[in-house]
UniProtKB/TrEMBL annotation:
<keyword id="KW-0862">Zinc</keyword>
<feature type="region of interest" description="Disordered">
    <location>
        <begin position="646"/>
        <end position="667"/>
    </location>
</feature>
<dbReference type="InterPro" id="IPR000850">
    <property type="entry name" value="Adenylat/UMP-CMP_kin"/>
</dbReference>
<keyword id="KW-0479">Metal-binding</keyword>
<keyword id="KW-0808">Transferase</keyword>
<dbReference type="InterPro" id="IPR001841">
    <property type="entry name" value="Znf_RING"/>
</dbReference>
<dbReference type="Pfam" id="PF13920">
    <property type="entry name" value="zf-C3HC4_3"/>
</dbReference>
<dbReference type="GO" id="GO:0004017">
    <property type="term" value="F:AMP kinase activity"/>
</dbReference>
<keyword id="KW-0863">Zinc-finger</keyword>
<keyword id="KW-0547">Nucleotide-binding</keyword>
<dbReference type="InterPro" id="IPR027417">
    <property type="entry name" value="P-loop_NTPase"/>
</dbReference>
<dbReference type="InterPro" id="IPR036193">
    <property type="entry name" value="ADK_active_lid_dom_sf"/>
</dbReference>
<dbReference type="InterPro" id="IPR032838">
    <property type="entry name" value="Vwaint_dom"/>
</dbReference>
<keyword id="KW-0418">Kinase</keyword>
<dbReference type="InterPro" id="IPR036465">
    <property type="entry name" value="vWFA_dom_sf"/>
</dbReference>
<dbReference type="Pfam" id="PF00406">
    <property type="entry name" value="ADK"/>
</dbReference>
<dbReference type="InterPro" id="IPR039510">
    <property type="entry name" value="Vint_dom"/>
</dbReference>
Amino acid sequence: MVVSLVQDRLQQPDVRERGCLLDGFPRTTDQAQALLKQVRVEGVFFLQVPEKSLIQRAAQRRIDPRTGEIYHLEFVPPPSDVLPHLVPRDRDDEHSFRQRIEVFKAHVRRVLPFFSGRVWKLDAALEPQVIFQKICRALDHLEAPEQETAEVPHSQHSQHSCSICFDEPADFLVSPCGHQCGCRECLVAVQQHSGCCPICRGPVREIQQVFRCGREVSSVSASDAVKRSLEPVAQAMHPDLLEKLDGTVNGAAEDDDWSEDEPAGDQDLVKLKIEPCKDQTCAGEAKVMISADVADLMKREPADVCCLVDVSGSMGSMATYEDADGNVKDDGLSVLDIVKHAVKTVIKALGPQDRLALVAFDDKQRTALALTDMCDRGQELALEALDGLRPGGQTNIWGGMKAAMDALREGAASSKRHQAILLLTDGQPNIKPPRGHLRELADYKDTHPGFHFQLNTFGFGYSLDSELLLELAEEGHGTYAFIPDAVIVGTTFVNSVANVLSTFSQSVTLSLMPMNGAQLAGPVMGCFKENDESWGRAVHLGPLQYGQSRDVVVGLLLPQPEGQPEEGQVYLEAVLSIPTLSGLEEVSGKALTSLTLKANVEAVVAEARADAVSTGHIAIASAMGNEGKAAGEQVAALSSRLAEAEKESQRLSGSGSPSDSPDGRLLALRSDVDGRMSKALKGKQRFNRWGKHYLRALTRSHQLQMCTNFMDPGLQVYGGAMFRSLRDVGDRIFLELPPPKRQEAPRARTSCSQATPAPASPNMTTYYAGAGGGCFDPSSTVQVLRSAAEGLAEVSVQLRDLRAGEEVRVADGFATVRCVVKIDRPCGKPLVVMPDGLKLTPRHPVRVGSEWLPAFRLPGSTLLPSFAGCVYNVLLDRCHILLVGGVQCITWGHGFDGPLHHNFFGKEVVNALSASHGWKDGHVHVAGRLRDAAGNVVGFDFAEDAQEAESEFQSSEWMPSRLAKQQEVTWVV
């Protein structure tokens, strides 16, 4: 509809005569193609603003809900009588705005190449008058192209910028389509991962460099005779040679400023800061945050990865999961089959610059594949070695670990690269070294001091020694992940390999040195390993990732000054030691030069996170000591402290109005604490079965500030652009790989298994669960018929504003809304953001052509955390295929069979909703769903009934029935 409106306007006489300026259009490739079919686009102004500045500007925008007027607290301040009525704009908080920026960047990468050679990049951080003058000069150039203007994209570099990084010249084309669209490094990355041309999305078979000879007609004349004589030859051999002769680089403008912020080494990629967690105006104990913030780059270092796979006999057991009706079943695949599919994803996610080794262990260990380059042939060898793994024998974890470390170490000297081991086991070791695993690991590292690696452990099922797996991960500077069910094998592995490949440094040490009478008060919060030294304290932070900070909180006892304290007196100095591939770097930072401290939101969030990690460790210890009640009380007290932190974040980040929202990271963290963290401690049997394994994994992830799954809301806020990009690539690989073949041998059945035969070709989306499916973000739009001056007209309405009785557009016309359903959903749970902006739960069925697919499988979709706190669905009187944001989506109560069939949400949902007080008004608020003794969904827990009685069922969590009863995994619908 947007395209048709623009096309109609472009046909009007005034536009055809004088031209026009399109603001914010086109935003998608479809819009760009439609525009170019109709008009000639003379130029595109691409306004560049640092992401940090955009976020700061957005945080100060306010809207008057009475008038719709928009103000800015700094640039467009409101009148004093209006200020009390202002509220923040929806999704202008930092984390929501970052999501919007990521979606924008994804669109820009695809749209700008359509206008190659006609794009002016302007620094929009300059004064408005300066920007206006630059635009005017560019427009003058369009009218008089023979004039030479510094801002005009006349050089070969600015005419053809890489469509991916926008920085390097697009000197390479892809075949067979022939689009010249990128630099070598970016196109190699594309070929290794998506394999699709950035312009047409066709296959990339080869990458070829384009050489030019002579000079461009519009290029600036050379005044130097030597340069003129060399030009044809130089252009043909080295396109950048002429620029080097006269000192210009990459077509930079003559008035380009010398940037003092450009990194001169690895130490410039990390910024260290020290901030107080609370306001303080006198001496005494204060909590301070020390934060190491790593630059958000997209160019990663090569990596060596060793997949260490348990092939003991228990790995041959069936991999079970729940179907849509809550029944436990299997596809004839063993646990090892699913793990092998996940390892295949790791293999395919690596590129020719990376290497992989494969080690298997049961009671013995063997290197199935030595460290091998992951070129096409190397990947073939890795897949062959992986297919040869068979289950059998006992569990000798140390034997496998030593073989894995040997495999990596033997190749470590040949090149500088990050090295990591991915260890997956489903049991406890029954073959143990006499001195213990940790002692052997420490001795191995001492014996090979130049060998640095990261050890990530994965525990599958419930018969685990998760304490050992966590200790090994801590000693190996890695993560521990708990996989209770087959359905999350894929997500866990993909997140892990994305973390490994986005690593900046594998082991970082923070040195804290109190000065001028100040003293460190107690241990560092968050249970980091630390050593007291004569000069202060050394804190071992573990690995750092690009685009993700590492925050530490410690108590500092500030001295009572004798008289007036000296100006600029330092009370704490911090030094960060960073072993990187280019050597050891140090980043120092000094702060707290005053006894008057002013808190900020980042420090408040850091203290809350550290408090959650410390409390989690204490609760585990209490429960292990048979003090489960005390453990539950500790977590409940933590929740109360987090609520206070939310209020503090409102005070610090807003205008002081009660309508200011708490920081989204705190909301997500409290969702973790009030959700599965609390439930893990409700009952001794539950804690011993899965709670202790889960809590160890959750606290380790928060400690390292790493996203290790798609389920826990608090983890979804971690990770930079590189991590998210690598994770998206892994998502697609896992789902697009051919599914494993089911076992042909007769399958042993448990009392929970279904008697139906497994399908011949398993659907791998089953094993890539991260959230349930079924609902839409409140801001999602539908087309509604409403009265207008000339009769009825279609208008766009957000779902949160939709009402029963209205006519909405569906797949075959219009249907009447019977009921609008609002469903509570924990903040931080991810939603899929589709290329056109639609946000919905990852597994919501979407129709593409004649096929129904879960939303997260659609090309270009991105999984990002949502902090709306709810989602929406509707009941219609007919059709049941609603156009949401222009996309055909199924609604509740559809009654369809086949791939959309669901006993409850397809049919019985109407009867369940009719029991709500809100049914007669056509607006129902759902807090959770109810299950019978067999685990089948039978109804809802309605928000209006929450204070009348406490349901014996799960009231705020959405999860498969078996897991709901055991409190193992939370699923969001």
